[in-house]
Amino acid sequence: MQPIDTSLLRGRHLYLALLTKEYEPQLRTLARDERLWEFTKTLLINDTYDAQFDAYIAKAYGHAGADGQAFVIHRTSDDAVIGMTRFYDGNEEHKRVNIGYTWYVPEVWGQVYNKECKLLLLQYAFETWGLQRVGFEVAHQNLRSQKAVEKIGGTREGTLRKFMLRPDGSVRHTVLFSIIDEEWPEKKAKLFSMC
């Protein structure tokens, strides 16, 4: 994928900044809220939290470059950090990328932020990179995130059964969603109306 121009990832309510080391202390504190990981079990809030967070951030940096990018989400009204998101598993040859690993501090859940964040990322994927598919992979128990993807226009494609094991050893099935380029103009208009 081509390098990211973050000036194109700024909306009315939020803007995205590239993940850098300077953000790590603040993100470590914000991500400690166990409500964020209720369904994914990505980070378990226990005595190994710091080691888990270090691995989580290392993976986020691993998504920077040819196949994606990790972002820190800022609220425009006060520049507060309110979460993270990523492009990942990008493939320029096949014109696709996934959006995921998205989380927000609970105080902003249900507000406009996720809709605008996805609008900015989808717009970048389809209009700047010229991709034909954006995918979303959601844990089967995470009904809140599944509903959020449906609200932004994602089409449910199916479920990958027993797709992975979560950090606590439990099985995760993965629900697949996508938006494709032919659908983008209609989905974009809907998202704009919601932001």
TrEMBL record:
<feature type="domain" description="N-acetyltransferase">
    <location>
        <begin position="25"/>
        <end position="178"/>
    </location>
</feature>
<dbReference type="InterPro" id="IPR016181">
    <property type="entry name" value="Acyl_CoA_acyltransferase"/>
</dbReference>
<protein>
    <recommendedName>
        <fullName>N-acetyltransferase domain-containing protein</fullName>
    </recommendedName>
</protein>
<dbReference type="InterPro" id="IPR000182">
    <property type="entry name" value="GNAT_dom"/>
</dbReference>
<dbReference type="Pfam" id="PF13302">
    <property type="entry name" value="Acetyltransf_3"/>
</dbReference>
